[in-house]
Amino acid sequence: MELSEKEWVPAPEIKNGTNFDYFFVLERGCMRTKSILEEITKLQEVTAILRGENGCPWDKEQDHQTLVPYLIEESQEVIEAILKKDDDLLKEELGDLLFQVVFHARLAEERRSFDLGDIAKRVSDKLIFRHPHVFKPEELTLSTSQEVLENWEKIKDKEKRIQKIHLSSQTFQKISLPF
């Protein structure tokens, strides 16, 4: 199979002897998985340096609560970029939001609570659990969005630990969403 400069290729079609279950972005014929992991690792390292002994005084003072306004602001900026249909701006704002996730993961890692890998595992496991029609199609077939939504409600009812985020009225007033 001849690959264009960039295209999505189902993993079984990759003819390099590896056996993957999911899709990978291929660029100029090689997997970008390594470079993506390298960039995520670099972001983690930059964050650790910012929080480290010789890091930034402001970054070292932050905790989960002090970062809430920035998390809200960055989320809002992502929404604005989406509504503007500006991919370059969206890339920038998603980067800022990703930094928030990495920063919060770093704070938790410093407390020896969890790390970015734990976050990724938790969300991957949750997505797989909530999409049995994709990951276990032999057990469940759903053909329409409506069927997926109905099954989603059943799954949510089964989940034992549903936590609701209770924002204080002060924090909530700072949110000014464009829709």
From TrEMBL:
User: In terms of domain of life, where is this protein from?
Assistant: Bacteria
Q: Which InterPro entries match?
A: MazG-like_dom, NTP-PPase_MazG-like_N, NTP_PyrPHydrolase_MazG
One example of the protein's molecular function in GO is: nucleoside triphosphate diphosphatase activity
Q: What is this protein called?
A: MazG nucleotide pyrophosphohydrolase domain protein
Q: Extract the Pfam families matched here.
A: MazG
Listed under GO biological process in this entry are: dATP catabolic process; dGTP catabolic process; dTTP catabolic process; dUTP catabolic process; response to stress; TTP catabolic process; UTP catabolic process
Q: Carries keyword Hydrolase? A: yes
Say if the entry is tagged with keyword Cytoplasm.
no
Q: Which CDD domains match?
A: NTP-PPase_MazG_Nterm
Boundaries of every NTP pyrophosphohydrolase MazG-like domain copy: 62-135
Query: Which organism does this sequence originate in?
Result: Leptospira interrogans serovar Zanoni str. LT2156
Listed transmembrane segments: none
PANTHER family (UniProt xref): NUCLEOSIDE TRIPHOSPHATE PYROPHOSPHOHYDROLASE
Alphabetized, the UniProt keywords read: Hydrolase
